Amino acid sequence: MDRDPVWSMTQQELWDEETARGYDTPGSGMFSTEVLGPTVDRLAGLADGGPALELAIGTGRVAVPLHRRGVPVTGIELSTAMIGQLRQKVPEAEIPVVQGDMATATAPGDYTLVYLVFNTIGNLLSQAEQVACVRNAARHLRPGGCFVVELMVPGLRVLPPGKTASVFTAEPGYLGVDTYDVVEQLLVSSHVTFGAGREARIGRTPQRYVWPAELDLMAQLAGLQLESRHADWEGGPFTADSPSHVSVYRRPADPATG
C-alpha cells in the first residue's frame, strides 16, 4: 500500500500562510481563558523570575500572555507564516524569535525555563529528531532550570481489535479523527469542519506519538530528571486514564554553586 501523501509534506507546507491565518481562535478553544490561564500561571511560576524559551512558539498563543506577565520570552519557530502572525501581535524587540528547527536551532543566552506545549514535539516525525529536541532544550537550560512538556497520551486503548482509527471529537460542525500506525508510532489527526449543505473542509496533521516512559528516557539521555507529572496545568493527578500530561524535567544544579 502506498504511504499517505501527508507524510511527504514539509513542516513549512503543513504550517503555511492559510493555516497560520486560521490558527488563532481568540477567547475559545486553546485560546480560552480557562485553558491559557492555568498554563501561563504554571509556566510563570516555573520561570521563577528568569527568562523562558518556547520551542515552536507558533503565533505566540502562550508566549504573548507569558510575556505580559513579566517573563522575558524568546522563541524558536520553523514556519515563516506562523512568525508573521506573531509579529502582528508583538515586535521582535519584545519577543525575539530564531527561525529554525526546534531540534537543532540555537537561541542566544541561557534560560531558567524551556517549554513545549500542546503535543508540539510530535511534529518531529522520528524518535531521533525528538531525542535531539530534548537535548537541544537541555543545552539551553541554566543549571537548576526546567524543561516542561505538554503531551497527549496515545489513545490506543480505545481502538477495537483490527481497527486503526478513533474519533477524538464529534460535535456540531466538527469531527476529529486520529488514524494510527501502531508499528511506527505515527498518527494522522484529521480535522473536518462542516459548512452549509454538503460543504466540508479538512485539515490533516501527521505526528509521532511519544509514550510518557519514552519521554522520560529521552530526558534522561539529555541529563534531565523528572520532577513532576500531572494530568493538566492545574496540577491534577496523572492516572492511567489521563488523556494528556504536563511533565516537568529539571537540569541538576551546578554542584559548585549548590
From TrEMBL:
Protein name: SAM-dependent methyltransferase
Domain Methyltransferase: residue ranges: 53-145
CDD domains reported for this sequence: AdoMet_MTases
InterPro entries linked to this entry: Methyltransf_25, SAM-dependent_MTases_sf
Entries under Pfam families matching the protein: Methyltransf_25
Alphabetical keyword list: Methyltransferase, Transferase
Top-rank lineage group of the source organism: Bacteria
Any GO molecular function: methyltransferase activity
GO biological process per UniProt: methylation
Taxonomic classification: Bacteria, Bacillati, Actinomycetota, Actinomycetes, Propionibacteriales
